[in-house]
Amino acid sequence: VIVTLRITVIGTGYLGATHAACMAELGFDVLGVDIDERKIEQLAAGQLPFHEPGLPELLKKHTASGKLRFTTSFEEAGAWGDVHFIGVGTPQKPGGYGADIRYVDAAALSLAQHITKDALIVGKSTVPVGTARRLACLVQEKHTGPGTIRFAWNPEFLREGFAVKNTISPDRLVIGIEDRDLDAEAILREVYASQLAAETPMIFTDYETAELVKVAANAFLATKISFINAFSEVTEFVGGDIRTLADAIGHDARIGRRFLNAGVGFGGGCLPKDIRALQARVSELGLDRTMRFLTEVDEINLRRRDRVVALTEEILGRLNGATVGILGVAFKPDSDDVRDSPALDVAARLFNAGANVNVYDPQGNANAAKRFPRLNYVDSVPAAVRDAHVVILLTEWQEFKNLHPEDLNGLVANKIIIDGRNVLNVQEWEDADWTIAALGRKFEPSREAIGLNAPV
Ligand code: UDX
Fold this sequence. Notes:
Organism: Neomicrococcus lactis
Distance between the termini: 80 Å
Family: Belongs to the UDP-glucose/GDP-mannose dehydrogenase family.
Mean pLDDT: 95
Oligomer: single chain
Bound molecules: uridine-5'-diphosphate-xylopyranose
CATH architecture of the largest domain: 3-Layer(aba) Sandwich
Protein name: UDP-glucose 6-dehydrogenase
Pfam family, one: UDPG_MGDP_dh
Strand content: 5-15%
Binding site for NAD(+): 34, 39, 90, 126, 160, 273, 339
Largest sheet: 8 strands, mixed
CATH class of the largest domain: Alpha Beta
């Protein structure tokens, strides 16, 4: 008799909800667990509280069929599950740079107290190195019920907008286990049998390596983006074209073109917090100098936001009283996420400097309005740019990449646009008599463009 493993997923945020629905799609019976009752009710009703392509369909299908259920009860989870994934959040500590891992601790502890049969706990959250080994001990200490608990760490690399694809067919699987824990290894091979059949590389290693792989990957990506953005600062000064530079170095296969898009920089729930948490963790370990370059990576990234604000002021002469049309507020396209969004940060700063800020994002308005309610959120490009003294493109949605000068002519007060993501055809806009300033390009406005157009 083949008995399929019963899977629980603790935490039903971005990571957990995606993992739970994808595991059901792979054929497992899945129980999603969260302490947030409202969230659980919503998910059980088949409603996804965030935007992710392909996920609502999976959630509806499997909640309807009963393969995917939700609960707030750790007792139920501990008695039922064979494999328990922990996918709770590890936000930045309030007032600090380190990761707040209290939710991971609480989840592991609750599981340990409620597991009543042989089970494997698998951590997926992004955590400071050392967490897995500590929790592996803690879990054994707190477990008094029947059954043996095994412990593994299996970091998640999912990217928003690609979460379903990244979970069903990941680039690689990384799994940290206790030395020679062949049972844990066998169970995870069963969980990931379909990925293995598709020849996904599966790397078994120790806890520390598994934890570090995740933060190393994110630190590398963040560094790559800040690297090109640092060159932006140079090309803005001496002249040159950052896009061509990125294309040219990207042709070297060792470098690669991806994640070399210069612009207003990275944001979101992962890269900014993860590079800060990594630095905090290594300094805690006494390795103060080791990750110091990440401070620079962070600073270069934040300077891009300053640059957009400064450029806007330079162009208009003053921000107070100016009308600004902002295109994009999500931290990246195809997402409704505004966590640490460079776009929302810039919009808020312009508002705080006295500008009237109209914002349009195809998906992000609602979340942005929760964080920064005082901006004027509108539901179309024309509404955002109407009477604008300057238009600023900050998130490269396809809808914005497709914009042409004639779409905005007649609506704006000034034909001035700042391309914060380097996605517009500069020549086309200049030919249509627009003043266009793109990050990473030297900006040499004509006398008429600057000053004369300033609001009074
Ligand atoms: C990231 C990692 O890609 C993913 O592997 C990890 O598991 C979680 O963190 P995500 O935050 O969803 O995923 O978004 P990503 O697509 O990586 O973009 C991050 C930020 O970098 C966005 O603000 C994006 O606009 C910016 N970015 C990305 C650039 O500025 N330039 C680029 O070339 C690429």
